[in-house]
Design a protein that fits this description.
Length: 162
């Protein structure tokens, strides 16, 4: 198994590998996921390091990371890279809103999404999104469409419990 990170393939940093928390300690098992020396950490293990940046994989800034089989064919890999690139752009296009405030108005959100997508030169994405939002049945449906293109963050404060 390999990781696809920012369009490149990497070998996972296994328990005890160079750069791993347990580097050079053959008698250790991972305290978080229980995998033995020489094994790959389990998915979403707290301790696993990202092979691209060396930081904690769960919290690093490398964007979406895909697991890839060793014998993946070229075409599937190319498709995955394109998907990853799209997801990365979405991940970088953060639009905050508060559904109870003026910026929670769907047109205000669209406006903000537009300027973000423009910066990323994704105007065709914007046009496609806009078309789809016109046909959305309600506010929530519109939001979930927009959320496919940009990372929508709902900043609405939870109502205080009285
Ligand atoms: Zn682990
Ligand atoms: Zn990373």
């Amino acid at each position: 198994m390999k990781y696809l990170i920012k369009g490149k393939l990497y070998d996972p940093i296994k328990v005890g590998d160079k750069g791993d928390w347990y580097e050079g300690e053959p008698d250790k098992t991972c305290g978080d996921c229980g995998r033995k020396y020489g094994e790959i950490h389990m998915e979403s293990c707290d301790v696993e390091r990202c092979p691209a940046c060396g930081r904690q994989m769960l919290s690093c800034d490398c964007g979406p990371i895909y697991n890839v089989e060793d014998d993946i064919d070229e075409q599937t890999l190319e498709e995955l890279k394109i998907k990853q690139q799209k997801e990365q752009l979405r991940y970088e296009a953060v639009v905050e809103y508060d559904r109870n405030a003026p910026n929670g108005n769907i047109f205000a959100i669209l406006d903000k999404a537009r300027s973000t997508l423009e910066k990323q030169q994704r105007l065709s994405d914007y046009n496609e999104m806009w078309q789809r939002v016109q046909n959305a049945e309600n506010y929530n449906a519109a939001l979930s469409i927009i959320d496919e293109y940009v990372l929508l963050l709902d900043m609405t404060k939870p109502k205080a419990q009285m």
